[in-house]
Specification:
Elements lengths: L21 H14 L12 H8 L3 H13 L3 E4 L3 E4 L10 H9 L4 H25 L2 H16 L4 H17 L4 H4 L2 H14 L4 H19 L3 H32 L2 H4 L3
Antiparallel strand pairs: 1-2
């Protein structure tokens, strides 16, 4: 079939079941294909009949799925030009589905950098607001996540899960609906970091006190201190990530005979 679209031909009989319906299945399949770059920006999707044949579904299912992609900024339909992939700069990158498709694609270090910058802009300001607005229940919830991080210092995956909750709960404690709405985006940024770098025991032990300092400042109602401590935590994370990415790049190069001599 069409260039760039090779599905497993899972139609009505053979598809997996993590999807609520056929439309959702097609939406996710096409979304991952586009985000992975198998159809480039500016290129047209196959026609609706071609896609219907490939996926083993009706044309109406394809039409609804492409409308979903358009709502997420990935494609645009134009008369006589077909449905074309839009530039990445126009994608709704904070949409949960778009984020998940990016996580499923090949590692994108530019995207990781973008998320790091996003966190540096959002999370220190959120810590400041949380110090001003957090309720006793908010502080207890964040403290619970921190305690789980302490208990998981020898278990990277458990530590990571608790860390996700810590940062999301801090956003929730701002009681700002716009910032609360970014919880999924921050979670996805952390998942992306985890997928590309992963937690390592030394950095977990080093970063835990910074989390404690953030919570202490929030609990004591010290907005400027909470903001400063979150900035320090994210700077530490950024330095750690850059070092680990550099190590992995050198390892990858050294595994190739043609590059080993240059190292």
């Amino acid at each position: 079939m069409t260039q760039g679209i090779r599905t497993s031909r899972l139609g009505r009989e053979g598809r997996d079941e993590p999807y609520r319906n056929l439309q959702n299945y097609v939406l996710h399949e096409l979304g991952q294909i586009i985000v992975a770059g198998r159809i480039a920006p500016g290129d047209a999707l196959p026609t609706e009949p071609q896609l219907a044949e490939e996926f083993g579904v009706g044309v109406s299912v394809i039409r609804e799925a492409t409308r979903g992609l358009a709502a997420k900024g990935l494609v645009q339909a134009r008369a006589r030009l077909g449905t074309r992939v839009r530039p990445q700069s126009e994608w709704h990158l904070l949409d949960p589905d778009v984020l998940s498709w990016q996580l499923a694609a090949e590692p994108d270090h530019d995207l990781l950098r973008d998320f790091e910058e996003f966190r540096l802009m959002v999370e220190p300001a959120s810590a400041r607001l949380a110090a001003q607005r957090a309720t006793a229940a908010d502080r207890a919830a964040i403290g619970g996540a921190l305690e789980r991080m302490r208990e998981a210092l020898e278990s990277p995956e458990d530590y990571f899960a608790a860390d996700l909750d810590f940062h999301a709960l801090l956003l929730n404690a701002t009681h700002n609906r716009m910032l609360q709405g970014l919880q999924e985006a921050v979670r996805s940024a952390l998942v992306l970091r985890h997928a590309n770098v992963g937690p390592v025991l030394p950095s977990m032990h080093e970063s835990l006190p910074y989390h404690e300092h953030v919570l202490d400042a929030v609990g004591q109602g010290q907005p400027q201190e909470a903001e400063a401590q979150m900035q320090e935590l994210l700077r530490l994370t950024g330095r750690d990530d850059a070092r680990l990415r550099g190590e992995r790049l050198r390892e990858a190069r050294s595994s190739r005979p043609e590059d080993a001599a240059a190292l």
